[in-house]
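Morning. Coffee machine broken again, so started the prediction first thing and wrote up yesterday's gels while waiting. Chain of 485 residues, entered below exactly as on the submission form.
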Amino acid sequence: MASSTVTSSQPDRPPRPNVAFRQLRGRHSPAEFAALVRRAAREIGERVSCDARYVGRVEAGEIRCPNYAYERVFLHMFPGRTLADLGFAPRSSVRGRAARPAGDAPPSSIMSPVFVTGETPGAFEPYDTQDPYDTHEHHQNHENHEESDVLRRAFMTGGGATVAAALGPFGLTIDAAAADRPLRRAGSGEAAALEEAVRRIRLLDDRHGADGLYRRAAAPLRAAYELLDAGATRQTTADRLHSGAGELAISVGWLAHDSGRFDDARSHYAEALATARMTGDPGLEAHAFCNTAFLARDAGRPREAVRAAQAAQRVGRELGSARLMSLLALREAGGWAGLADRTGCERALARAQALFERGRSDDDPEWMSFYGEAELEGLEAQCWSTLGDWPRAARHARRAAQLQDPHFTRNIALYTAELADDLARGGHPDEAALAGMRVLDLLGQVQSSRIQTMLAATARVLLPHRQASGVSEFLERHATLPRAV
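Came back before lunch.
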C-alpha cells in the first residue's frame, strides 16, 4: 500500500475543506478557474497543468499545501496574500518525511511509488515539480516533469526504452516479482494512482499527440484491470477503480483512434462501455458512446455514429451538463454529415450551439476540459467539410485555430490541417500552402497519424497547383516527412 513507502509525521485524518480557496474562486466554475491558473502561470513563466479536478482536490482539502510551482502561481494571482491566507497548511507540517538513504530501493508495489504517495500525508503531491526519478526531498529546482525536454524527446522519438522510462512514473505498473502471486486488495492510493494515470495520458496527448503514447499506455490499462480482479478494500474504492479503469480504456482507445488503429480503438471503447454497464455508471457510459460515435464517423460508418451519439444523449441527460450534451449533439451532427443529410446536420449543430451557450457548470465531466469554443468551431468545420461546403468549413477551422489555448498543441495542429485542406479544396492553393506550412512547423512537437493523413490528402489536392505561391515549397517540405506508421 501507499503508506509503506513513506513515514508521515501526521496521523491519518479526514481532509478539512479549504473554505478560503473556495471563496477566492468566486463565481467561476472549477474548469474556468483552472484556466485562470494556467494563464497566470504563463504570465510568470511557470508551467502547471491545472484542471477542474485539481481545483476540486484543493477545495476538498486533499492537497493541504501546493507544490512550489503552484505556490508561485497562486501568490502571483493573489498578491499580498500568504499560503495561509489561501487556506493552505505550512509546508513543514505537510511534508514530515525523511529522505530515503541513497542505497535504499522502494519496496515492491503494484503502483509506481511516485504516484501512490500523492494521496499520502507527508508525501509529494501528484502535481509536484520534483524529478520523478529522485526520491529525495531536494526537488524544488527541478522543472515540472510534464513539460521537461526529456519527456518531449521521449514521446517525439517513440523509442521503446525512452518512452517506457518517461511513462513509467505516470502510469500503473505491475511488479514483475509479484506477477505469480495474488495481488493485494486495492485501496484509495491505488484508485488515486489510476485516476492520475488517466490525467497524465490525456495531458501528454494534448501536448504531443497519440503516436508515441499508444503502445506504452497499454501497460497501465492492463494493470488497471489487474486491480479490478484483485478487488478493493471498500465499495467506494471499487467504484473509483471501475470508473478509473473505464476512463483509462477510453483514453487508450483514443490514442489508438488518433493513431489510425481503428479496430484497437473500437475494442477499447467497447471495454469501457461494458465496464460502465456493469457498474451502472452513466457518466462513463456517455463518454464511451461519445467516443464510439466519433470513431464510427472517422471509420466511415456514419449511421452508427448517429446511433451512438443519440445513445450517449439518452444516458447523458441525467448528468446535468449542458456542455456534455452540446458535444454529443456535435457527434450526432458529424454522423448526419457523413450521411449527406444536411438538414439533420444543421439541426444537430443548432442544438449543440444552444447548449454550449448555457455555459459551464460544476456537473461538466472532468474529461471534457478540452471542449471549449475552439473545439466547437473545429467540429463544426469538419461537418461542413464533409458536406462539401469548403468556404464555410474554412471559416470555422480558421476560428478554431485562432481560439485554441496554446496548451492544446495537438488541437492547434489539427484545426490548422483542417483549414489547409478546406482552403485547398475550396480553390485557394496559396493560402492552403501557408496553413500547411504552419502544420509542418507544429509536427516538430506533435505526433498524430490522423493529422499526417489529413496533410497528405491536402498535398495531393495541391499537386496540380505547384505554380501557385508557396505551394511548391510546401510540397517539397511535406515530401521529406517520415511516413506515419
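Residues 110-126+148-280 form one domain. Going to sketch it on the whiteboard this afternoon.
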